[in-house]
């Protein structure tokens, strides 16, 4: 299955829900914010949000800024 | 001795200069003792950042949002910011109102992002804020319940539109971001201070504690700095210096500074000594 | 956390910026924590003066000498100055070296007057110090064992002559006495800071805490103010503001402020967010 | 007897020493400094410094100054 | 000797600084030798005005429109302006785009008013131009065939919008109208000069010939002044001074001024004389 | 129309601002039309120098003296300076009064050197003039019949001593030689203009025509420039620009410039138009 | 007949056309610009523009301005 | 014969007067100013000023200066 994560196409396996994406791709998963197909997805919904081929996923975090 | 009780004059002419008991900065109903906001970008390391937040005693710090790096581990900036501090997420990266709104909503989804510094920049050379798009974003986000602090180019009409749009403060730039040139827009920030009934927070270009103090003496409600602190030889010490200078500038404003005079005026008595009978 | 330990650079290039453990101001071998000197002229009342000395935490205050008024009672200014404070008697009223020397000797006779601020003014309009007479007075008084702090117009050759004459500090004017215009002589004070191996104390014309902080950021060792404080709406609060701004400016100097930049430079990351694939 | 005090000629009576001058003319005698005929006179000498007709006396005090 | 031929550099990096044979100012295809525009308000008498137009050699002068006074005779300002001069009617009095458009159309009806300086002011205290309404008025009038010179607050995004709206020049304010404070907006006018492909004419607040020259040295295409000239002791002489200073500033710009240097640099040879063998 | 006849005010309050029929600059009894003095150092080639003298219409130019190079041919600078121009030989290289006197006497032996610009510099970093030695040299040379124009650091007491020593003008520095920073000493030059009854010629640091005009507007009698002209891309054009700006500044001074105002003041009538009955 | 000229109501007599208004009310008629009822009226139309009761007329001129 | 010219010792031959020095050492002799042993020597004296061993001679010219 192919999905786009932060603009890059990734071939993923063993993944069924958004929570799996976060676990697998976020080296530092705390305070991560996600969008799936342009929709913001709160963290309490990750485990029941299914991933399907072609999904556009954004993984966003807080960084230093002025 | 509460020195503040001696203040009597007022910027608008009718109320006391100190509008509340402890001269707190009030934004969206929330009280802050500190009038120095610290940005968290560009620090050489997170230890310096954490120590600078501590030494500055800032109660509001800005952060940004960014796509995570899928390949490398990145520190979570939030872990270096104490829980009691108000997080102010900026919309840096937004080139128009719509993008700013999207970033603000993402921030909110984290549970930390109700306070938003709107920053809409559509110019990669001077990084000047786009006032028109900033007004639009302010309107949308204020109506969604965000506490909105728009960063803007100090234009009186824009400031008035921001008030109408529901902004919680107005944040005019002092000079170009990261230029450390101080208040090149001083005359126009003064107009905002005199005319706008919201806290004016001077943001961008404030490169030294003396410049920060000058903004406060002018009547600004607070100052935000980032680049100067983060890129100093000793950021932790400079963060403290900024905070202290902001306080000094505030006290000076409240104490009603005398103005400049064109000519000399003696501070010691010059007459009646030694040679009056010569 | 001793923030000062992080300082490494140095104005002369060889030693630490902090030349002693607590970054004390050292004049004639005596250590001072405070780098803000307060003048005692022009206060509306002696209570304000006493409270301002307290709120500023100044350790050196200036006084003048004058013939007493035979007809009216006058307060004794010394009664409002705590005993642990170093009294610095100025020679205001002196129009040449000889008169300055006479005033200094009178001060010494009181038992309080070993520290002398030489002030020779022969111009009643601009109140500018006469550098040549100041050098002469410095030479005489230093040789008599006075601790001599000459007030001067910031001329490099004069400063060098004062060093040679035995001055304990050099006190260049920022702008005309009582004008509150700040450092109109900034470029030339900077030269003194860089070239003269004595504490440089900026005196005269410093009208706001931000101006005082700016002098310290430039590398001045201390700042003296009087008129601005004494004539403010709330002198006690402004005295505190000055002291705090001077401290802030000192910390900024020690923290190695980054310089000004001609162009903008982002404090938040601008790339890699949201629209890179659009 | 006439003396000049701080530039003003004064007719004085019942005065023999500088200490009497200070007592009589200084409404606030603490920390006063004196000169007599151009000579500084320390306070511990006042009581044995005689005053004579025509003396020039200066009475000086500390005041606020910058 | 045509001094201009020696100029080689260029502000945009590709063309000559002098973009046409005689370094004419070109607005809407029309060539002007003079780069000094004179306003006609506030003159004490019409004779001074006529003489000032002559002494300045201005080729573009501004006028305003107003309801006539039904009770008193008023001079017709046009009778004091030579026929060969381009009349630039301002829209002073307009508080929004619609009113500015109405004034422009009235001017056009006179047969003199095809060139319009848009001035939309909705603030009676600072008289600042309303950028948003100015853009709207520019768009409408440019589409109706007017030559539109909008007066504006120097905001880069507004300037870009004015270009798009069909403006013939952009006229940023130097400082508040009539304040004679010069270019308080210097940094931001410089940005317009560098980024906008239209003549930049600095308007408002230019109070001295030296300030006008400074604007030209920065790269402005022209300068407009009124208050300073009209209220001078000798307006006719000052008008000439302004014109000459504007020319001098233009020449300086074309001659590629060297920049400022932080340190001294001798203009006479310092070595090899007299004491090298001592 | 002789515009000058309209001038009525006066810097000292009693005479006309224009002290002679054609507002000539008078030094040592000699009249000059031009108030711009050109230095001849640092030009890339002698052709540029000759053309710059011509384009500037300067009537006084400075030169220096130096040991000839025994190995290489050097151009004779005098061959590029028209005979009708007053040669002003500086004493650059002199570190004290004695050396300055020696150089002046050498100059005189040439038959060209009766006019001397005293320049005593004992500091190779900032190239600041030594006021004390300058006074001494002025005294000696004036008594020997030289026309003495001392270059000095703008200190009022020094200027008074120079008057007494027989100087023909006083030439205060604007900022460090060759720095192009303009009048960093503006406040103190103004004092000399107001207090000294000799022509004040601003020398050193004047880097742009606008700065030169500013000095003239302040009331200076003339301006000298060298480095800025000689190192410009087009020195010949810039020399002309300087001369023209100096003239403009002089006219502005004579026309009694209005001062700065803190607030806006309309130049067009704002009332009575269009909406008064709305 | 009553008309409003520059915001003031005027009772007028012996007036039939706009040209009469200009002649009568403009002390200096050169370069005058007119509006009638919000409509700009060029000078070559003045003599055939009738005036009727209640007309709103604007008479505008050039003045000095910056 | 050895003389010092502008600080450099020079071995000279065929030279008897200051005028010869100027001719031989000044590539551009116009407007030259001379000192001999600290004494300024006007050009009209050059041809009758003898040169002797050890003389200190300065040859000075005008150059550009500010």
Describe this structure in words.
The complex is a heterooctamer, with 4 copies of chain A (66 residues) and 4 copies of chain B (278 residues). With 66 residues, chain A is mainly beta. Helix content of chain A is 12%, strand content 36%. Chain A contains 1 helix and 5 strands, in the order E-E-H-E-E-E. A 5-stranded mixed sheet of chain A has the order 2-1-5-3-4, with no helix packed on it. Chain A is globular, with a radius of gyration of 11 Å. By secondary structure, chain B is of the alpha/beta class. In chain B, the strands form 2 sheets. In chain B, strands 8-7-6-5-4-3-10-9 form an 8-stranded parallel sheet. A two-stranded antiparallel ribbon of chain B has the order 1-2. In chain B, helix 2 packs parallel to helix 3 and helix 3 packs parallel to helix 4. The longest helix of chain B is centred in the C-terminal third of the chain and has 20 residues. Strand 4 of chain C pairs antiparallel with strand 5 of chain D.
Strand tally of chain B: 10
Q: State which percent range the strand residues of chain A make up.
A: 35-45%
Quaternary class: heterooctamer
Helicity of chain A, as a percent range: 10-25%
Helix and strand sequence of chain A: EEHEEE
Major β-sheet profile of chain A? 5 strands, mixed
What letter string, H or E per element, gives the SSE order of chain B?
EEEHEEHEHEHEHEHEHH
DSSP E strands of chain A, number = 5
Shape of chain A: globular
Enumerate the spans of chain B where pLDDT stays under 50 for 5 or more consecutive residues.
5-16
